[in-house]
Amino acid sequence: MSVTYDINKQARYSIATFFTGRSVFVTGGVGFLGKVLIEKLLRSCPEIREIYLLIRPKKGNSAEERLKKAIELPLFDKLREQDPSIFAKLIPLNGDCSVERLGLSPEDRQTLVDRVSVIFHAAANVRFHQNLQLDVFSNVRSTRDICELGLEMKNMVALIHVSTAYSQCDKPVVDEVVYPPVADWKNVIEIAENLDQKLIATFSIKCLGNMPNTYTFSKRLAEQVIIDYSKRLPCVIVRPSIVVSSFDDPISGWIDNFNGPMGLMVGGGKGILRVVLMDPVVASDYIPVDVTIKATLIATWKRGLVTVEKDPEVHVYNCTSHNICSVAGRELIAIGLRSNEKLPVDGVLWYPRTTMTSSRFVYYILTLLLQLLPSLVIDSILKMTGQKPILVGIHKQIYAASLQLEHFTTNQWYFRNEKVIDLLTNQVPPNEKNDFGFDFQVLDLTKFFSTCLLGAKRYLLHDDLSRIEDNKRRLERLLWLDRIVNAIMIAMAARFLWNIGFVSGVLGLIGA
Predict the structure, then answer these.
(1) Whole-angstrom distance, CA of residue 122 vs CA of residue 240
(2) Element housing 194 (H / E)
(3) Which of 115, 199, 206, 483 has the most other CB atoms within 10 Å of its CB?
């Protein structure tokens, strides 16, 4: 039995009331953003009817098993303490966004059509591996299929598409507006479906234009899909920048991946990451994951209050922090190193010291000298002691990832976000400001990123926090060892230059 909503009465004054009795469909629900979204919906909108989650079976785990593992995480501890029965509202559906029509069974599809009134499309292939076919299937065709599903739904009031601020990275300034297409998304889907891999690879080189990779290209095309369907569907495009650990909701420092600054801070803290391909003065834009979700839910509520007949425009929000949480590369590294001195990570291999360069050639040379050669030595020692050598493989991955991210670590953008600031500060109902509001002025960057590092220790590395003093003593010993080794290396270099006559030659030139 379908439910009829009067969106002009109580729901107009309450986000939680807006979701009361509603059934919601979420793609990407067990991803980083998705987990925080469903936790927030269940905790702050407890009268929600149910949340359907499209989950792809993976590594032998069914959709049900993947959901069960997700809700066992510390992110859901507060919710588990308040009302453990509420997890029954999470309903996993087998599916796959890279498959046509989302891989849904006819029965599951009909259930969604009959019951769902809000869609959150957060699933995407975010790897920068330059696989145009996979990116088109996962990011573009899936968005088309989501829109087609939305058109069938009887109670549809809001379709939220999670894009990325970097979908428009060919522009130095990105506003909260829709932009003209770079290609016809229908033609690109047809090409991806019908050409073989070699031809698609050739085509991708020609079609990217000013876009740095197939990921950003496909996300931009996906926005165009939403724009084209927005005359018939109530659509929202949310463009987050670099999503990082939670600020404080439901817990501080929650993170479940090493992407972005966490990889830098953890790799640097362990002494593994000695050189970074990054412009020291370029500031990257970071946004806490819980702030992203709050803005997304407010935007959903605002869109859902007005029918598409009265407002056929797509609503666009750059979910970015602008200058408030933009950090230059050298500042981020400095914050990470200072934080690591106070809270050293377990298993530090060498005293943390990170060099930054925006030159690919210099990065290549320094990678050989500071990362690859020491890794070869350490891996040889590990092999001789019967342990598995791992560092060379890690540094190969780091090097490849750094080249893929070079465009983003050596360039800077200005993301206008006045509409998101307005959402978080002025549009939240007064009685729900604690649940959904956020003031960027409370962000202390040093304190926040220190909390991020602590969160990484807890939730990613699972470090023993009782060993902090032991780790500090180990770090102090490694500092002295680092100084001794550096002194030996300098002495050896000086001796080599003396032996080849370099020093005497220079002195001769000075004397002349």
Answers:
(1) 11
(2) helix 185-194
(3) 115
Q: Is the pLDDT of residue 8 over 60?
A: no
Task: Give me 349's structure tokens.
Answer: 């291999």
Q: Is 403 exposed, middle or buried (0-12, 13-18, 19+ CB in 10 A)?
A: middle
Q: Which two tokens stand for residue 36?
A: 């925080």
Q: Which residue has the tokens 């400095």?
A: 334
For residue 220, the one-letter residue type is R
Question: To which residue do tokens 């869109």 refer?
Answer: 303
Among 475, 490, 464, which Cα is nearest to 271's?
Answer: 475
Q: Measure the CA dihedral 361/364/366/368, to 10°.
A: -150
What residues contact residue 189 under an 8 Å CB cut-off, 6+ apart? 136, 140, 141, 144
Confidence of residue 4 (pLDDT cuts 50, 70, 90): very low
Q: What's at 420, amino acid-wise?
A: V
Q: For 286-297, give one letter per residue: b (16+ CB within 10 A) or e.
A: bbbbbbbbbbbb
Digit-coded pLDDT (tens) for 49-84? 999 999 999 988 999 999 999 999 999 999 999 999
Three-class DSSP category at 54:
strand
Q: Which residue has the tokens 């890279």?
A: 98
pLDDT of residue 497: 66
HEC secondary structure over 283-333:
EEEEEEHHHHHHHHHHHHHHHHCCCCCCCCCCEEEEECCCCCCEEEHHHHH
Picking from 234, 291, 248, 503, the residue whose alpha carbon sits closest to that of residue 417 is 291
User: DSSP for 66-105?
Assistant: HHHHHHTSGGGHHHHHH-GGGGGGEEEEE--TTSGGGG--
Query: Positive or negative CA dihedral for 440, 423, 304, 226?
Result: negative
- Between CA 317 and CA 421 the distance in angstroms is 10
CA distances from 289 to 32, 186, 400, 405 (A): 8, 32, 26, 21
pLDDT tier, 131 (very low <50, low <70, confident <90, very high otherwise): confident
How far is residue 13 CA from its own chain's centroid? 32
Is residue 502 pLDDT above 80, yes or no?
A: no
In 95-248 the beta strands, taken as DSSP E runs, fall at: 116-121, 158-162, 173-174, 235-240, 242-244
Reported confidence tier of residue 1, pLDDT bands at 50, 70, 90: very low
**What's the CA gap between 277 and 288, in Å, rounded?**
24
Q: Model confidence at 5, in pLDDT bands (50, 70, 90)?
A: very low
Chain-centre distance of CA 352, in angstroms?
25
> The whole model's pTM is what?
0.92
Question: In angstroms, what is the C-alpha Rg of the chain?
Answer: 25
